């Protein structure tokens, strides 16, 4: 039976990426920057892999193939493919103003998932902000005109952020991570992104500006201020050795934060695996006789059939399930 396993992320470099994940979070790569570390990924040629243990070096899809879908849990049966993608994102510059489609549009577009996502702000520079929908309700025609006239910044809703903030970005919500933000992202397993605006910047990788997707953007964008239909929970439970905050529970995934000062015990059952991201601190995780050291930047896969596990030390953990 597969035991708790550390996962090595797949590193991604982009025009806007920084070096914090390489310098402070243990991401090993020869890339010039690390914009994203795909901590839990079964996505095509961007898979994470087992780090240490019996299955060292195997990709996540190979781990599932060898150990059976029991390690994912029964909820995974509701999805045709592996349902989630979990990342660290380091924005040293502004990301494009963009939008993701819902499942129905994505299925017609490329046969895959749509993309609803959520962000936990791990750190940020003073005054850092995100784009989160529109200031006011506008028509699709007004949005198209703003794009054409390079006035997108006049109609979007800027939100200043701070460490510990949490945002749900539903499919169809126009958004952007702006420079100076380090965050954790839990999302549907999709890489479909439609760019509305990219600051007219030159990208040497494509020897010109990155392509925009105006038609698709106008097709899927909700032209009104965001009003999430999926509520975030933010229920706080004070345990003897940890403070646990339920950030989000929705049909796609659930996310909680555990701020551990001594120890935190939880368990998986037959319904879902758990994925743990170490946001800060150091400690250990123990499950069924297996003990792993933990440090900032680690990711751990806890199989659905693993049962009880205990995380001890002084550390902050983001725990995700489906």
Characterize the structure shown.
- The protein is mostly beta strands and 322 residues long.
- The chain folds into 2 domains: 5-220, Jelly Rolls (Sandwich); 235-321, Jelly Rolls, CATH 2.60.120.10.
- The protein is built from 6 helices and 23 strands.
- The protein has helices at residues 20-24, 60-67, 103-110, 140-148, 152-155, 214-220; strands spanning 5-8, 10-12, 36-40, 49-50, 84-91, 97-99, 117-124, 129-134, 156-160, 166-169, 175-177, 181-188, 194-197, 202-203, 208-209, 235-238, 242-249, 254-260, 263-267, 274-287, 290-295, 299-302, 308-321.
- The strands form 5 sheets. Strands 1, 4, 16, 17, 18, 19, 20, 21, 22 and 23 form a 10-stranded antiparallel sheet that branches.
- A hairpin with a 3-residue loop joins β16 (235-238) and β17 (242-249).
- The two termini are 21 Å apart.
- The model has no long low-confidence stretch (mean pLDDT 95).
How would you sum up this structure in a few lines?
By secondary structure, the protein is mainly β. It is 13% helix and 40% strand.
Beta strand %? 35-45%
What's the Cα radius of gyration? Answer: 20 Å
Overall mean pLDDT: 95
In total, how many beta strands?
23
* Second rung of CATH, namely the architecture of the largest domain: Sandwich
| Largest sheet descriptor | 10 strands, antiparallel
Total tally of structural domains: 2
Number of helices: 6
Instruction: Flag low-confidence runs.
Output: none
Give the topology.
Elements: E1 5-8, E2 10-12, H1 20-24, E3 36-40, E4 49-50, H2 60-67, E5 84-91, E6 97-99, H3 103-110, E7 117-124, E8 129-134, H4 140-148, H5 152-155, E9 156-160, E10 166-169, E11 175-177, E12 181-188, E13 194-197, E14 202-203, E15 208-209, H6 214-220, E16 235-238, E17 242-249, E18 254-260, E19 263-267, E20 274-287, E21 290-295, E22 299-302, E23 308-321
Antiparallel strand pairs: 1-4, 1-22, 2-3, 3-5, 5-12, 6-13, 7-10, 7-12, 8-9, 8-11, 14-15, 16-17, 17-18, 18-23, 19-23, 20-21, 20-22, 20-23
């Amino acid at each position: 039976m597969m035991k708790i396993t550390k996962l090595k992320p797949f590193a991604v470099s982009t025009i806007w990426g920084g070096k914090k994940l390489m310098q402070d979070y243990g991401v090993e790569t020869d890339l010039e920057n690390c914009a994203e570390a795909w901590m839990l990924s079964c996505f095509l040629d961007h898979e994470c892999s087992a780090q240490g243990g019996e299955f060292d070096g195997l990709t996540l899809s190979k781990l599932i193939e060898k150990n059976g879908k029991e390690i994912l849990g029964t909820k995974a049966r509701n999805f045709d493919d592996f349902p989630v993608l979990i990342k660290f994102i380091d924005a040293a510059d502004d990301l494009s103003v963009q939008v993701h489609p819902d499942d129905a549009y994505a299925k017609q577009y490329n046969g895959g998932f749509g993309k609803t996502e959520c962000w936990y702000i791990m750190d940020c520079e003073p005054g850092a902000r995100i784009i989160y929908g529109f200031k006011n309700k506008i028509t699709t025609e007004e949005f198209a005109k703003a794009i054409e006239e390079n006035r997108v910044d006049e109609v979007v809703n800027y939100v200043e952020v701070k460490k510990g903030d949490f945002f749900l970005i539903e499919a169809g919500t126009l958004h952007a991570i702006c420079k100076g933000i380090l965050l954790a992202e839990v999302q549907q397993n999709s890489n479909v992104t439609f760019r509305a605006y990219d600051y007219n910047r030159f990208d040497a990788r494509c020897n010109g500006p990155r392509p925009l997707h105006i038609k698709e953007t106008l097709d899927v964008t909700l032209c009104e201020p965001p009003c999430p239909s999926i509520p975030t929970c933010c229920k706080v439970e004070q345990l003897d050795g940890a403070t646990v905050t339920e950030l989000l529970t929705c049909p796609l995934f659930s996310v909680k934060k555990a701020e551990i000062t001594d120890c935190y015990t939880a368990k998986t059952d037959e319904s879902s695996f758990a994925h743990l991201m170490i946001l800060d601190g150091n400690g250990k995780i123990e499950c069924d006789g297996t003990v792993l050291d933990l440090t900032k930047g680690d990711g751990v896969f806890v199989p659905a059939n693993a049962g009880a596990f205990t995380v001890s030390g002084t550390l902050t953990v983001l725990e995700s399930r489906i």
